[in-house]
Predict the structure.
Amino acid sequence: MTVSQKEKKPTSISDRKPLSIPYPKWKQIWLTCRGLFWSFWLIISLLTCNALQTFSLLVWPFSKRFFRRINQAMAHFWWTFFITVVEKKNKIKVTFWGQDVPEKEHVILISNHQCMADIPTVMTLARRKQRIGDLKFFVKDIIKYVPGVGWGMLFLDCLFVKRTWSADRESISQTFRNISRYKVPIWLVSYLEGTRFSAKKLISSRKFAAKAGHWMPEHVLLPRTKGFVATVQGLRDCVSAIYDLTIGYPDGVPTLWQIISGFVPSLHVHISRTAIVDIPTDPAEISNWVLEQFKKKDQLMSFFSQHGVFHGEPIKIQ
């Protein structure tokens, strides 16, 4: 798709607006009913998975690998159901750009972060690459107390962080040791901005960039590099690549409710792959590498804000 074939131009990224499409009243009611229907079944199925995950603790003393396989199967089932609702049942058009990537590859995945809908967006790629059951996330520590998703993540080697590196260092290192020791299949997702994008947070990020002498962000927040450096160092022998995803919503940034209900007509994902052997080993160089990646991401989002698509031609990923 060329710029001349562009979709509806989105709102300015620096003043990013929520999704707002003027559907007729009857369609809004219909989509809301769909959302309630699918939300009910998603919650029921998720709590059922939580119960089965709890029973899997009986296996833990005898085989930690089998315990992880059981929970991988639970994750594969529920996340596949979730993304089937989001993408297939709601007929969302997902367009991929950039590089295609191999199937069944162990990776660290980084992305820009605008909303909760970014999570199912990442899953659209994971499903296509047969890795949806292997997704693991860096998430806020408080999430583990949330019934459903939070409880489920406790069984999946997800990393719960408290926002301070000194508090998180040992728990993160222990999780990495477990992943390495038990050869856990992994697609580790990290939103390095540390929070969802907003105009207010962009101002703070720009102040920090000016003070630190970094490039000035306009469409993303500067990444937090300490955790990323530790992740690369801790998992270098466990992964083969780093995927850098840039996500764009041409009709405005949706809520999780809107993407479950079917209010979102389309979304775009730009993919860049870097082999782990091409990532520096020195901590300062790793930090500089990811800062440069986010500079490129900022440029990608600048183009997207003007044209509603990423540059180049879309790629077909089944």
